[in-house]
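Hey, I'm writing a tutorial for new members on how sequence and structure tokens pair up, and I'd like a real worked example in the thread rather than a made-up one. If someone can provide the structure for the chain below, I'll link this post from the tutorial.
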Amino acid sequence: MWAIDEHRYGLISHQRRCWGLRRVRPHAPYRTKYDWGYLSSALEIDGKDDAVCLFFPCVSKDVSALFLRELAATDPQAVHVIIQDQAGFHLKAQDEGLPENVRLLPLPPYSPELNPVERVGDLIRDATGNRVFGSLKEMEAAIEREIKPLWSEPQRVRSLVGDGWIRSQVNAISG
């Protein structure tokens, strides 16, 4: 079982709170340049606590199908249940681009707090906040450094997913 989501990042600087000396106002660099990219990410809820992340230049049904094919290829013999929001560019259960071994489980509308992958967005903001990047490639390198532990340390994925309702429901269904 996986939870997936997309995260937009761009060259418009993201302002974050920061510590400073008393009575000294800290200044963070800022630039307005309209250039965007998207990180599609998936966290395994139950199993090996894997993570899959891919950079894309846009979001669309074709990109969503490509990401689901990559996710399904991680274990071709398994049936992958995907929890996702109901964004217009996500595939639906009846779409022909959906891989054979993928089943979709939509979240209720307007409920991002139910999706544990939303926490990957915090990692992206940690990597890019209060910084100015010259290009999207530089920004993607910083994001990759921040999320790289998700691939090598399963306990990081487990900490993002947590031990809340979603893991207990998966265990109740499978047990």
